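Input record, target 12 of the design panel.
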């Protein structure tokens, strides 16, 4: 039979081994932080979207569940941080952004998939340290995938998506075709079409326009015929417009009183210009 002293020494040795093992585990085991997008800044009326309903967004809100998102109203903006600063998302006015996936890859890389149904957003994402990391932005007509870049998208009511890349590389994909868009280039994707070929980045908010008198439904109206860069988004009196593959659009107002067309032109990178056009 072991003496009380021997038993005490054995017990002390077991406690020491356990303490060392626990300390080693704390130093070497990877710690996974919760995935999510944090609301860092708000301007104007921004709503937080949840499966349980819609409520005003607040700075510090975390979007961590599939279906969580934000919706900005006219004149509103939001800034979102992805995880602990892996990326920043600038959400412009009249934009809806929803989380589709937040998960981990087998190599502990982070997989982030977002869906933007309308509006304009710019993303600045640092280079990933894991091969399995992915950040994808889905729109009604396609997909943009990145591994570290600075780019923006502009989405029209029919889903047409303009893409502009400042730095890095973005894979623009639709209908089984993928086009690489490098820094300093832009392209767009129309509904039911593959992505267009990239062209040099313009980030140009210029508007060319003309007026014509028309009769619609027996009512005299003035029609604005405008043209912008094909990747840009356009709003007329706060209503998002659809442009064709050349950037052309039309909008009509009643003839009396003399109509005023307030036009907002937005590039995918967030550059804006407003025009007040009065027909006389």
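The sequence produced for target 12 reads:
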């Amino acid at each position: 039979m072991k003496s009380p002293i021997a038993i005490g020494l054995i017990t002390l040795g077991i406690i020491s081994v356990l303490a060392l093992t626990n300390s080693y585990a704390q130093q070497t085991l990877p710690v996974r932080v919760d995935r999510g997008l944090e609301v860092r800044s708000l301007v104007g009326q921004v709503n937080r979207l949840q499966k349980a309903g819609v409520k005003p967004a607040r700075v510090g809100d975390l979007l961590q569940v599939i279906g969580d998102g934000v919706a900005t109203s006219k004149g509103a903006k939001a800034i979102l941080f992805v995880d602990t600063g892996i990326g920043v998302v600038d959400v412009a006015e009249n934009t809806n952004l929803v989380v589709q996936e937040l998960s981990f890859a087998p190599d502990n890389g982070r997989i982030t998939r977002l869906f933007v149904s309308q509006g304009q957003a710019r993303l600045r994402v640092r280079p990933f340290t894991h091969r399995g990391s992915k950040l994808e932005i889905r729109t009604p007509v396609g997909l943009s995938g990145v591994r570290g870049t600075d780019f923006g998208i502009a989405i029209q009511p029919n889903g047409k998506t303009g893409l502009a890349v400042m730095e890095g590389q973005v894979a623009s994909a639709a209908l089984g075709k993928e086009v690489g868009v490098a820094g300093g280039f832009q392209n767009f994707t129309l509904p039911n079409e593959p992505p267009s070929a990239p062209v040099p980045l313009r980030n140009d908010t210029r508007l060319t326009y003309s007026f014509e008198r028309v009769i619609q439904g027996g009512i005299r109206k003035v029609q604005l015929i405008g043209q912008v860069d094909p990747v840009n988004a356009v709003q007329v009196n706060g209503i998002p417009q659809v442009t064709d593959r050349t950037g052309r659009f039309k909008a009509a107002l009643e003839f009396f009183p003399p109509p005023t067309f307030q036009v907002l032109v937005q590039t995918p990178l967030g550059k804006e210009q407003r025009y007040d056009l009065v027909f006389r």
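Helices lie at 4-28.
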